[in-house]
Amino acid sequence: MSFEYLGKNYIPACYVKFLESSGARAVPIFNNLTEVETKKLFESINGAVFPGGIVNVSTSGYANISRTILKLAKKTFDEGGYFPIIGMCLGHQILATLVNGPTDIRIRTDSLNMIAPLNLPKNYRDSKLFRSLSKDLMKTFNKTLITTHAHELGLPLELFRENKTLDQFYKVITTNVDRNGVEFVSTMEAKKYPFYSMQWHPEKPPFEWNPEKVIPHFSASTELSQYISNFFVNEARFSKHKFASRKEERAALIYNHNPTYIAGINEHSIFEQVYLFD
């Protein structure tokens, strides 16, 4: 969605609230940073969220910054450090595309404004992401229309079965089907690295309220959202990165910017609040 009449770049506030709800603070990562600036910021923060949106998954500023962060995160882990990444919707697709190569590997799916169950398999405890989930919660999440999907493109499951690069790098945890029965990867995690992603939106149920969108707000939906948030923030606590000074840290925090109540300006906005830049 374009907010160009207010600002060229934006971050939906729901991603910030998602992190803050588990005790983290947010730092915006702008898509026009140089490689040197990106590396410096990377060494100052404890994890990265690759959010949803509509940009080119190979050539956009978002893709370029994500590529640099992914490369640095892998190098950090290989050298004994820790830097988790979580991708949602477009971020999920970018994490797969960056590992596979420059080709856009997505297919069309009829899954815009759709809700679905989580579909955890019986061996869900073999995953890092869901290993702490209780049986009762697993059953609740699987039988309830709990995940919100807002995408017209997806990652086909057969691609992961046939593509050695993707199959060796990622473990597919859940799949869903669109309205036409097309199966796509809905949750995955890296086998070696602390990288996690989902095609669905864990950040939406507690914080987005547009009645035109099918966003579940019952307790199980917010519980799943909080579970994912708690998991990722706990992962970030393993990172030893920090800012060079308290002054630099204060200057980088999202607190230097104010969210705009965009739904108060445009009743059809898909977001309640947005941080607008430029």
Mean pLDDT, all residues = 94
Shape: globular
Radius of gyration: 18 Å
Distance between the termini: 16 Å
Tell me the number of helical segments per DSSP (H or I, 4 or more residues long). Answer: 9
Strand order of the largest sheet: 2-3-8-7-6
Low-confidence stretches: none
CATH topology, which one? Rossmann fold
What does this structure look like?
The structure is a single chain. With 278 residues, the protein is of the alpha+beta class. It has a single domain, classed as 3-Layer(aba) Sandwich (Rossmann fold). The chain contains nine helices and ten strands. The strands form three sheets. Strands 2-3-8-7-6 form a five-stranded mixed sheet. Strands 1-10-9 form a three-stranded antiparallel sheet. It has a two-stranded antiparallel sheet with strand order 4-5. The longest helix is centred in the first third of the chain and has 18 residues, at 61-78. The radius of gyration is 18 Å and the shape is globular. The mean pLDDT is 94. It is found in: Secreted, Extracellular space.
